[in-house]
Sequence to fold (568 residues):
Amino acid sequence: MIARLRADRRTLPIVVAIAAVVGVLAMRDPTIAQAGTYAGIYAIAAIGLSILLGNVNQISIGQAGFFGIGAYAVAYLTTALNWPFWPAALAGVLLATLTGIAVGFIALRFRGHDLAMATLAFGLIVVGVIHQSDALGGANGITNIAFPAIGPLTLSGANAYWFVWIVVAIVAAVTLAALGGPAGRAFEAIRNDELAAEVSGIPTRRYKIAAFAYAGALAGLAGGVYASFLGLVIPEAVGVALSIDFLLMVVLGGSGGVSGAIIGAGLIGALDIAGHQFENWREVAYGALVIAIVIVAPGGIFGFWRNRFRPQGVRLRQPIPAVITRPIEPPVAEAPLAVRGLTKRFGGLVAVDAVDFTLERGTITSLIGPNGAGKTTLFNAICGVARVSAGSVSIAGIDVTNRKPHAIADLGVGRTFQNARLFGDMTVLENVLIGAFRTGREAHDRAYATLATLGLESIALTYARDLAFGARRRVEIARAIAADPWLLLVDEPAAGLNASERAQLQDDLLALRARGMTLLLIEHDMKLVMALSERVMVLEFGKRIADGTPAQVRRDPAVIAAYLGTPD
Fold:
């Protein structure tokens, strides 16, 4: 994400300069003015789709539907009701935004190609409604739409070009500012690993809906400008073919950034005008261009460019001592975690069977048992990742049974996974920032302080996908504790670590307990379990078969038979 934003900010002035040069030429050549205006209009809509596709990993083939809503809102309001352009455009943006929210709610039920088909259906519905609406002109559309004006200045020809590209610049600046803040980090985390983002405290559903709303708003704005610039709008102009064009712009230019969308829109806009000279070969040219880009630059033109800006090295802020050393104080006196009769079924299989336990504050409790005993399923049920079939889970006296994972994280619960789920396309620093996401303005200070506490400063700007196995484990723990949770669930942290890494892990976990954190640990390394734990619980086939001190559990005949075994 750092590389993407850095490249975007360096590329955008170049794009603006090119647009200015084309604008000077547009003042002399109406064809250039027309092509450049179309490109700018397309760029506004493409930026929204780029965020949706490249930052939140939501495949949409319905962007033309939002575009059509904005276009027809301006067309109808300015012709039938004699509204001025500006309030009509605002109404079109608002209507497209609300539609984007509605589509976003529907899209939450779909993934992958199913999502693509659902958004395609939305676009088809919009065109179908327009065709059947006499008020919107039916198949003939709406004509005689007046050019917008600013005082005595009519926005047509070269004036329209400058107006559109000023709007593009404003949209680009607003989008970059958003991507550089918490929203951008949330989007990137969702794109990398939605489950890990949710468990880290990000309300993923809310951000996905927000992305659809933003994409809808920008497409609606672009549609309104398009209708006023062209002077007419017909159903065929806002059909599936336009959605495909928008998708081409994002793929060719490079998704997940502002500059890529603008580059792609400029390229398609230019080809669209030039294509009138070889109308029957336009699709062939588009197809050949897409194949060439995918082969030469899979990330698009901008993606190829931004790879030159992968950050190297890091200079961290001075860590905040209060964040590093202060004790973790639970907000209430109730037990950090109380599980009552917790049962989780998968069809006829009972993975967790009526488990009861309560954790004491500031202790380390280990959960052991053979593979398939239900340990990770129990973790998932506690964290809201898996719905509870029966029983209850309470955090600090609050019943959180079947709450969303981000809502449970908000109560001060951190969690790691059996197989480390880092955000591979994000740096170590960005991963830890996600862990501190719910702390708001303190996020950066907490992230830097956490890195310093665990001695991870030297790899802060290393991409998570490039980390060695042991480092991945420590980074995931850093992400889990960045918000100072007072309850931490750690799933097999020592798996795959060498002796020195296990010793470091033991020191890290003991330091967290010393600060007052309560830990529940799943682990197969009995030496580590016995060294760390005040209490050990044993599961077999989903049932708790033993619970006591490490010494008591080590001698328990049921545990020996089920898990520990007897020495030869």
About this structure: The chain is about 55% helix and 10% strand.
